[in-house]
Amino acid sequence: MRARYGIPLKITAGLTATAAAGIAYAAGIEARSFRLRRVTVPVLPRGMRDLRVLQVSDIHMVSGQRKKRAWLQSLAGLRPDFVVNTGDNLSDTDAVPEVLDALGPLMEFPGVYVFGSNDYYGPRLRNPARYLLEKVQGRHGLNGNPPVVGAVHNPWEDLRDAFDAAGWVNLTNTRGRLKLPQAELAFTGLDDPHIKRDRYDKVAGGPDAAADFSVGVVHAPYLRSLDAFTADGYELVLAGHTHGGQLCIPFYGALVTNCDLDTDRVKGLSTHTVDDRTSYLHVSAGCGTNRFTPVRFACPPEVTLLTLTARA
Q1: Which pTM was predicted?
Q2: Which helix (H) or strand (E) holds 39?
Q3: CA angle 56, 168, 272 (to 5 degrees)
């Protein structure tokens, strides 16, 4: 006898099929539908020539991801003035050679980098619903959560050594410079706030007055880091980490950012204001996923080409 208030079998089957189709699309199609986002930022001093910046973030390379490697290699054809890598290159302890193969053509250009938590530690299988719970409780990463125990350590030193050998500037809680044909740029970087490795006190003091322009760089856009950069007078901050929300609701957007940044600024260009100072903030949605959650929905993987132009 059919239950009086039961859900009809056809509806149940339809919902199951729809969910399965959505997962198949998110994992098999959208997660591999790589995009190039183009953004213009009017932030340079008047009279300064435009600069083309390629920001690469959250690659989360897993061995065998040939399509992702080939796409990243092809980006060298954009001929950027310089590259900014905002971290989380790895999602596999064996993937360092494949990251370097993917980024090899881009490493021919001047560049700077910071690392994210997934460069240091291997990913762990966890319930995706915990991200929503942590948002409600105000806990993200090690910021309010207990320290990670038994973490897998990635060979991040090999990645660092290869980037350094290519001439990319390591911005781990330090400052650095790039001398380009048209300008000399200064950078101030932080190690990943998501795992409490940021030390702004080591780099405080504001933009380099001797450089033509200064940029703040950090992996995870935690508010404490954005506040510090902005209060110190940086006009542009670049970050990643959020994956653009990764699983978004069409016509609504992201549910989480995996940090204390609001969802309205989960990806793309926005601003950040502290007292009477405002900076531009660009958050990359990244081009990868944690190996245990290889899905993206309404949030395709991407790399951004930013054109920095003079202020009006």
Answers
A1: 0.92
A2: strand 35-44
A3: 50
